[in-house]
Amino acid sequence: MSGLVENFKTVLQRIQEATPANQKPARLIAISKTKPVENIIELYKAGQRDFGENYVDELETKANDNVILTECPEIRWHLVGHLQSNKVNRVLTRVPNLNCIQTIDSIELANRINNTLKQQSKTLNILLQVNTSQEAQKSGISKEDFLALYEHVKTNCTQLNCQGLMTIGLLDNVNAADDSDFHVLIQCRKELCEKFNLSTDDVELSMGMSHDYERAIQVGSTIVRVGSLIFGARLQH
Predict the structure, then answer these.
(1) Which keywords does this Swiss-Prot/TrEMBL entry list (predicted)?
(2) Quick check: is 218 in a domain?
(3) Backbone phi, then psi, for 59, in 5-degree steps?
């Protein structure tokens, strides 16, 4: 077994071990940014299907790679980085097997994606990105405004399937005791479920990365985004 596959199996096992008894294991998105196509194919062959990229350019290149198209027919791509409105058309028309955009943070962006999809007669999964740490340099809608965004999507964006909420958390938070971003997102889900009469089981929470995914799962994350623990340290982009 290669080191890459060994890392992958270890993360899957740790996901299982961190999962509370009454919860199904969180879904793993393998964050493959800056990593070669060969790594993605190797993980796919080991059983991984969900892969995440931060940049539209890199996602487009990898998703159209001939070997990936041939050998990874069931791959599911997730955009987990900020989507600029001028790249909406590209990501929706040039990325085969796009499964989800996890970073919807404005009515304008939701409308633009919805209108483009309508022209293609397609639908797409999305998550709403909430800026739980309220850092000015980070994308994401405020916790005060996300309900209005959700309502807009549900009412007006017929091509978008809003699966839940996503947060990145503090950019420099490696404090093992500080799970405040997770709890803010959990509170957002509670407010969402109360206002729209939803079950918490119907609202995904994408939170937790390599340094804190186990803690995220323990408090209720249903999707974790793990890169460096699987692939090793990233090259500078």
Answers:
(1) Pyridoxal phosphate
(2) yes
(3) -60, -45
